[in-house]
Amino acid sequence: MVLKVDSEQELLEVVRNAKQSGLISVVIQDAGRTQVESGTRTVGGIGPARGDLIDKVTGHLKLF
Asked: Judging by beta carbons within 10 Å of its beta carbon (0-12, 13-18, 19+), is residue 25 exposed, middle or buried?
């Protein structure tokens, strides 16, 4: 599932909240080979985990 955040700061907060909840999570930095600058944090991956646990930290986000 792909969800949207409004800023890099929000991305980092969601991933931080996931980690604090004990969920496997990571922030991905772009390689810079397309439209964004190298090193830009563009994706947060959360899981695998039960959907209800992930929803606790992502339930407020909208589908991308």
From this structure: buried
What single string gives the DSSP state of each residue in the chain?
--EE-SSHHHHHHHHHHHHHTT--EEEEEP-SSSSS-TT-EEEEEE-SS-HHHHHHHHTTPEE-
The whole-model pTM stands at: 0.90
59's CB contacts (< 8 A; 6+ apart) are none
Structure tokens at 11: 């991305």
Tell me the average pLDDT across 10-32.
97
